[in-house]
Design goal:
By secondary structure, the protein is of the alpha/beta class. The chain is about 30% helix and about 15% strand. The longest helix is centred in the N-terminal third of the chain and has 11 residues, at about 70-80.
């Protein structure tokens, strides 16, 4: 028997292996349906509160750390060479981690200093990371958002969404070592391993339209003939990390994400940003399986299953004619599954209350897996405020 929270709850496993979550009133055989539904509604939230960030960390994974004295150009080449999309930044003078270097920084440098294909981007070639941070972030320096390994996954979800970040470093408070970088994708994948052991909340059978999950107004998008430098500027000004490519009939034909931008460093083609988006995307034609789509009349259960299996960070919502309607991101999904049932919006703080979720008597926790190349599949997530 596994208990989490204030000790006021209990669980039992029936013959079919289903977890039954109660509120401590096990001597009452018949629970009111409304109370039962409410108990199921926040089951994912309670599950997250009863598992620690350490539970998600694989036994083997790649974590690249950069010293802030490293040249910016070498840092981005190192991201490509190691197949990762972000790295914690270590400042030797302070003997601490001070930030993250991400593809967003690469885009910001390109859009800030690019002039024409004939002019070399000196700042990218010569600047050190610390120089770039001092020049560009001098008025916006913020402490690195991180989390200890013994914090709950619920706290991690809340921190990711509230701070509008895509990556959350797990740092040991005693040693000061960075252990892992949590993402929405990794957390949702972890939850998906256990869903068969929990009762499914009724809202999972509701549609995106009913639940208002996703973004359906003021959608940022580009056209196939949009110059690449324009697309990068949209990333910067709209603070999104994926742009649906829409033809002039309004149909979605492709998608350009921040993940794709790192290819400019891989192929050393960042000095010519006047090419079109279509030309910039030719490098991935061999393995790209197409834009992952959905419609707003599909259930949340279907959406979660599709996005986890496809290992993407967003689905483009389209109508019957494949015209763009909206975007559903991983943060939208985690908000709906975990924070909304807890009564929390994207900006609200976590109330001080305990959780009550019980793990089945039969240990269902998977072995700590190895992820030598998980980051090589990662894309940026479509959400406001990536850092």
């Amino acid at each position: 028997m596994y208990s989490c929270g204030d000790g006021q709850s209990s669980d039992r496993v029936d013959g079919g292996g289903q977890v039954e979550v109660s509120d401590g009133m096990s001597d009452q055989p018949d629970l009111d349906d409304a109370a039962s539904n409410e108990s199921e509604r926040d089951i994912y939230m309670r599950f997250m509160k009863c598992h620690k960030c350490y539970d998600i960390i694989p036994t083997s994974s790649k974590l690249v750390v950069f010293d802030t004295t490293l040249q910016v150009k070498k840092a981005f080449f190192a991201l490509v060479a190691n197949g990762v999309r972000a790295a914690p930044l270590w400042e030797s003078k302070k003997q601490s981690f001070v930030g993250m270097l991400t593809i967003t920084d690469f885009i910001n440098i390109l859009t800030r200093y690019y002039k024409s294909p004939m002019v070399q981007i000196y700042e990218l070639e010569e600047h050190k990371i610390e120089t770039w941070r001092e020049l560009y972030l001098q008025e916006t320096f913020k402490p690195l958002v991180h989390i200890p390994p013994d914090a709950s996954i619920f706290e991690a979800v809340h921190s990711l969404i509230k701070n509008k970040i895509h990556r959350l470093p797990v740092i040991d408070p005693i040693s000061g070592n960075a252990l892992y970088i949590l993402t929405h994708k990794r957390i949702l994948k972890f939850l998906q391993l256990f869903v068969c052991e929990m009762p499914m909340p009724a809202f999972m059978k509701q549609t995106l339209e009913d639940l208002a999950v996703g973004t359906y107004s003021n959608i940022a998008y580009i056209h196939p003939d949009t110059p690449l430098i324009t697309a990068l500027s949209v990333f910067t000004h709209r603070r999104v990390s994926a742009l649906p490519v829409v033809d002039h009939n309004g149909k979605v034909v492709d998608i350009y994400s921040k993940f794709d931008v790192i290819n400019l460093a891989a192929e050393k083609t960042y000095n010519n940003l006047d090419v079109t988006v279509t030309q910039a995307l030719r490098h991935r034609s061999q393995y790209f399986e197409g834009v992952m789509k959905c419609n707003k009349l599909e259930t949340l259960e279907t959406i979660v299953d599709r996005i986890v299996k496809a290992e993407v960070h967003r689905l483009v919502v389209v109508d019957e004619g494949s015209h763009i309607v909206g975007i559903v991101s991983l943060s939208d999904i985690l908000q709906a599954l975990v924070l909304t049932p807890a009564g929390l919006g994207r900006r609200e703080s976590i109330p001080s209350q305990s959780a009550s979720y019980q793990r089945p008597e039969t240990e269902c926790k998977p072995e700590r897996d190895e992820e030598p190349g998980e980051d090589t599949k990662e894309e940026g997530e479509t959400e406001e405020g990536e850092t």
